[in-house]
Design goal:
This protein is an alpha/beta fold. Helices cover about 20% and strands about 20% of the residues. A hairpin with a 2-residue loop joins strand 3 (about 75) and strand 4. The protein binds pyrazine-2-carboxylic acid and zinc ion (ZN). Zinc ion binds near residues 61, 88, 89 and 114.
């Protein structure tokens, strides 16, 4: 039985931005290949929310902000271990734009995250300290949206953290696996799936949705 999205469901499209697609500074392998599928899935949802990774220049998550550190190394910050990334998704730059092939004109909200210079935010719900809200929880609750379907980039970082935080905030969360792609830095993809399933996130595919 395929699921038909209802008026209480929302499709959360994570970070389909130029920096995360081939040619970008933090390109996810095949990151552009999911875009036609996301466009098609979105037509089945009355409610769609997009996210944009949106960092300051010199952001704390950039390896270039830490002397002697290289991308994909880690460092300890007040809120925990931070993976260090190539500079990406700097506010107002072309790399931070949504990918030109993403076509979801009925999307109702674009939520930006990671805009504080000294704190990252993989999640669309809470910043990296696990408690500073982005406002998305309140927005979804106010609108009576109870179940979140997730697609986008990257499976093992922003999709996974958003899905787990959706659970933490009391929403049902379902990740549409074939409409996501991962970075998979040092087995992070397998760990992310184990963490998500442990948090009660459901793993589905686009074939499970009636489009
Ligand atoms: C992401 C690493 C750094 C993501 C964002 O969208 O998954 N990953 N910033
Ligand atoms: Zn980022």
């Amino acid at each position: 039985m395929k699921m038909k999205p209802t008026a209480q469901d929302v499709l959360l499209v994570i970070d389909v931005q130029n920096c995360f697609t081939p040619g970008g500074s933090l390109a996810v392998k095949e990151g552009d290949q999911i875009i036609p599928l996301i466009n098609r899935l979105a037509t089945a949802f009355e409610h769609v929310v997009l996210t944009q990774d949106w960092h300051t220049p010199g952001h704390i998550s950039f390896a270039s902000s830490h002397a002697g550190k290289k991308p994909f190394e880690t460092t300890q910050l007040p809120y925990g271990t931070q993976v260090l990334w190539p500079d990406h998704c700097v506010q107002g730059t072309p790399g931070a734009d949504l990918h030109k092939d993403l076509r979801i004109p009925h999307a109702e909200l674009i939520i930006r995250k990671g805009y504080r210079k000294h704190m990252d935010s993989y999640s669309a719900f809470y910043e990296a300290d696990g408690k500073t809200p982005t406002g998305l929880t309140g927005y979804l609750r106010d609108r009576g949206l109870t179940q979140v379907f997730l697609v986008g980039l990257a499976t093992d970082f922003c999709v996974a953290w958003s899905a787990m935080d959706a659970r933490k905030a009391g929403f049902a969360a379902l990740v549409i696996e074939d409409a996501c792609r991962g970075i998979d830095a040092g087995s992070s993809l397998a760990k992310a799936w184990a963490d998500m399933l442990g948090a009660g996130v459901k793993r589905i595919t686009s074939a499970d949705i009636a489009v």
